[in-house]
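re: ur question from earlier - yeah i can do the single chain one, its not a big deal. heres the input i used so u can compare w yours
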Amino acid sequence: MNRLTLKDQLQKYRTPYEEEAAFIEGFIGLTDDPLAYSRERLAGHFTASAWIVNPQRTHTLLTLHRKLGRWLQLGGHADGNENLLEVAMNEAEEESGLKNLRLVETSIFDLDKHIIPERPHVPEHFHYDVRFLIEADIQEKLVISTESVSLAWFTFDSVVDMIGYNPSILRMLEKTSKSEILL
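and the output i got, formated as tokens:
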């Protein structure tokens, strides 16, 4: 997936979720800016995430993010890589230690634009997060990266209790539960 493929997928992307639909035009506009794939674009930049589920669609893998102190899907900065699918897969492997990840489909699974709080030497900014659906074996050994405090599989039923109210995670959970991809 390159910049043109991303733009094409975004132009074709449809969602019944109003909050997600409101992001699409902003994502499309960002694709032509080479700095959008780099942290140097301080107003906001692309990130890519992996919504990792087991093949039976009963569990999702979440990380307790070290800097943000919240349970989130795995993912990270593009750091100049315009292939956001590749970024998501690399981040998923790096942050989980999982070697047998399987991309469910190459199309975008979810979009989210969210604010990242100011930290020393980093102003408050937006992440334009492009997410992909990935499967993994729940029995495979997990390895916690330096970016995480913890890493765990959660049943779909327990996600809300563990994370509290996070509309984007709840949306991905709902999409997975309603997905035509269900076994």
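The radius of gyration is 15 Å. not sure if urs matches, ping me
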